[in-house]
Amino acid sequence: MSKHIFSSDEPAGEYVLEFWRRLTTEDRQGRAQLRRAPDLTGIVITPVYQSFLHGLRPALAGDGSASKTLNSETGRLAAAAVAGALAQVKTHVPLERAYGSTTAVLMAQRKKESDAPQISELRFRRMLQAADLESFYAMLRRTLPLLSGSVDVPVLANDIWLWGDRFRGDRQRRQWAYDYYAELPSRQQAG
Whole-angstrom distance between the N-terminal and C-terminal Cα of the chain? Predict the structure, then answer.
């Protein structure tokens, strides 16, 4: 599994968690701007994103690779996707599994009222097949409400960041598949 750049005990993880907290408690206008943005370009032109990007630079300074990525168009779009996704999150729910956990674990968990996973296998496979970060973000934006807006904020940020990385994106897709399908049987048998 790729390194967790946004781990909650790393500066970047602490930063995204604090940014999310500000969005949900203090900066409702900024949150609304991000939620209304139709795509990544719409996010990039918001003042709240520019503020997020400005604060993210020093948080990533200790990680040379991530800091370098942030200076590229791909990195800035990944940061836009992170900011946009965080505006959709209602509740931070830390994942319990310490090894290789991704947001896909939450997607595979059973709905309260049935044995079906939170996110259907068909929707999940479509997300894995997203051609680019813009397509992935559009699908993720529609998927987060199906999770009741409850995710692990630093893990989600890490997932998006790696998804947009041209060198690590395929590995991230595979890790999502491993995590989703590993969680799926245990939840179906637990009922």
Answer: 29
The whole-angstrom distance between residue 5's C-alpha and the CA centroid of its chain comes to 12
What are the CA-CA distances from residue 122 to residues 14, 40, 65, 107, 126 (Å)?
33, 24, 34, 12, 6
Short-list 157, 143, 177, CA closest to 4: 157
pTM: 0.91
Rounded Cα distance, 29 and 119, in Å: 29
10-residue block means of pLDDT along the chain (191 residues)? 75 96 96 98 98 94 75 92 98 74 91 90 96 95 94 95 85 93 67 49
Give the integer Cα–Cα distance in Å for 66 and 61: 8
Q: Helices in 73-168 by DSSP H: which ranges?
A: 73-86, 103-108, 121-128, 133-143, 153-163
Radius of gyration of the chain (CA): 16
- Give the CA distances from residue 128 to residues 72, 172, 174, in Å, rounded to whole numbers and listed in that order: 23, 9, 8
102 contacts 175 by C-beta, under 8 angstroms: yes
Listed by start position, the domains of the chain span: 11-190
The CATH number that domain 11-190 falls under is: 1.10.520.40
